[in-house]
Design goal:
Number of strands: 14
CATH architecture: Sandwich
Shape: globular
Number of helices: 0
Radius of gyration: 18 Å
Largest sheet: 6 strands, antiparallel
Low-confidence stretches: none
Structural class: mainly beta
Length: 178
């Protein structure tokens, strides 16, 4: 019998029967993805981290879970000549009706260009977060971006100038049983 895993976390053809809330510690409990089409640049010149608008939400099925978050498809951009040498990427989380907050005390990814002209870097972020929540709460994850070292002008989390538009940017969140 073929086993098929779908993007919404559904498994068909699985000869092992268990409900989504069961499984041992370290098991994938559910998988949720969201996408945006990078048809225009996502940029800012603000000195503090800015929201990307790519939000993935889920309602945890188990208490004490961790969340493995990946995000791919964006084109980070650096240009020393235009004073946007560096970019920093953060992962923010919001629980229920709370406010978004950084899941770490710093950034989780950065890019930097110190000479030459401009470069688009493929964005690829992976991080494990352990927010505090209660069963029934909705947990939201969103990448944020901010200026890196030497950046004093507009900076780009997603740049369409060289890489073109139409890229699919996807964030996936996996609930891992605690």
């Amino acid at each position: 019998m073929a086993i098929t895993l779908y993007a919404d976390g559904t498994i068909t053809g699985n000869p092992i029967k268990m409900d989504a809330g069961s499984g041992s510690a370290g098991s994938v409990i559910q998988v949720v993805s969201s996408q945006v089409t990078g048809s225009s640049s996502i940029a800012s010149s603000n000195a503090s981290p800015q929201a990307t608008g790519l939000i993935t939400s889920l309602t945890p099925k188990r208490a004490g879970s961790k969340f493995f978050v990946t995000c791919v498809g964006n084109s980070m951009h650096n240009n020393e000549g235009a004073s946007n040498k560096g970019l920093r990427v953060y992962l923010y989380c919001k629980v229920a009706s709370g406010s978004y907050a950084n899941v770490t005390s710093t950034y989780i990814q950065s890019s930097h260009r110190n000479d030459g002209h401009w470069t688009d870097f493929p964005g690829s972020m992976t991080f494990t977060a352990s927010p505090s929540y209660s069963l029934g709460d909705v947990v939201y994850f969103q990448p944020y971006f901010g200026p890196g070292n030497g950046t004093t002008s507009t900076y780009y989390w997603h740049h369409t100038g060289g890489s073109g538009s139409g890229t699919v940017i996807q964030q996936t969140v996996m609930e891992i049983g605690g």
